[in-house]
């Protein structure tokens, strides 16, 4: 395949929706599969919607996810600048070229005048049927036009959409898409302040940056007719990239497009990283802060619209790269199944090595005020990793490895704690204290307790449940002897002593 160049081109208008990350991922995968180039371009032509910090958020999100651009804003490259507001001077000449070649025109209509037109006609569209009745260079005499320009009257440049044409797009996902030119309006190309609209800027930039494939959300499909016309009118039809419009990401119930409000309503993340807005309502928890590994998130997102056609579900990024193709992307929307996202995360946590997990879990434990040694924390992660699905659950489900037990399973104690249990626990403590600390290993502790039980004719049900509750407060958690080995001799015997006194109060 040709030297593929793709771009992810978000607008810095707030937190980057998770759908944007999926778009970036698909662009990245196509580029990497064909040894092409993945570019980040910031499309900030609409300065009224610019939000401080949003650009930095976009870049940090891509870095965290591990889909790092080869060139672009903050990454360098020979086709910069990669922020559209820094390219303002580039666009005017192309807008003027449209006018000079008869494919564009100056329009002096004010916002108020256009609003009045819409009030009078709810179906009003600035186009072939209306343009000659409006305030533009097509309807004005040459003298009046020159006079208005000389006087400094503000104007925009609009695209002159031809009448009675079919505009055909061969979409790599949807096949042939046909637009009737009569249904397209004369969109603004250059605004009165000299800034281009999205439509002109993204076509000019894609051409100048030699973009070969435009992979973007379904919401941009209706604009593609205008974009094809622009390529033609600017003389670049032979350089037009191939288009691929991705399916929507749907709400968890499958009804409608997933929105940031769904995240708030359902208590689930719909952004890669947390975002602090001006109000609590505009602040959101991200997948990272929710406890997801980036690899799991990418694996989950890849399957929102794409399927490899095999039974395999767990893919490393390199495997995704090799398996990916645009032809395997569905036309229909993909339901955002958060339970499936958690399942992916669980699989990645289960498969991670304890050294990696220790680095991820440490900030969570230290946030609680505990600073364990590396070996202890690695051991803890190894014991807990098959019992958690999200990183914060390491603390939530295993806090008792670091601090006193806050809740005991009193029902199980009441069921099993008998008058003779006190004496049994006291003897067990003495037995464990006789085991040298240098031999305090899982198998040695296990052998010691088994020998103790055999000698006194005790069954597992007489000892293990009480032992587990004494050590963890719960019947859940890692195997008893694994816990005892990690907690250490002194901590285990102290907890058992405390349990003798405490369990008496439960019955």
Textual characterization of the structure:
The protein has 507 residues and is mainly α. The protein folds into 4 domains: 5-71 and 248-341, 3-Layer(aba) Sandwich (Rossmann fold); 85-205, Glutamyl-tRNA Synthetase, Domain 3 (Glutamyl-tRNA Synthetase, domain 3); 353-401, Orthogonal Bundle (Helicase, Ruva Protein, domain 3); 410-506, Orthogonal Bundle (Arc Repressor Mutant, subunit A), CATH 1.10.10. 45% of the residues lie in helices and 9% in strands. The chain contains 21 helices and 12 strands. It has helices spanning 18-33, 54-65, 88-100, 111-120, 142-150, 198-208, 224-233, 260-266, 287-290, 294-302, 317-323, 338-351, 354-367, 374-384, 393-398, 410-416, 419-433, 442-456, 460-472, 480-487, 489-506, and strands at 5-8, 37-40, 71-72, 104-107, 156-159, 166-171, 175-180, 188-190, 213-217, 242-246, 249-250, 334-335. A 3-stranded parallel beta sheet has the order 1-2-3. A 3-stranded antiparallel beta sheet has the order 4-5-8. A two-stranded antiparallel ribbon has the order 6-7. A hairpin with a 3-residue loop joins strand 6 (166-171) and strand 7. Helix 10 (294-302) crosses helix 12 and helix 18 crosses helix 20. The radius of gyration is 32 Å and the shape is elongated. The N and C termini lie far apart (75 Å). The mean pLDDT is 95.
Determine the structural class based on helices, strands and strand pairing.
mainly alpha
Give the helix level as a range of percent. 40-55%
Total helices: the number is: 21
Total beta strand runs: 12
What structural keywords apply?
Glutamyl-tRNA Synthetase, domain 3, mainly alpha, three-stranded antiparallel sheet, Rossmann fold, 4 domains, 507 residues, 12 strands, Helicase, Ruva Protein, domain 3, single chain
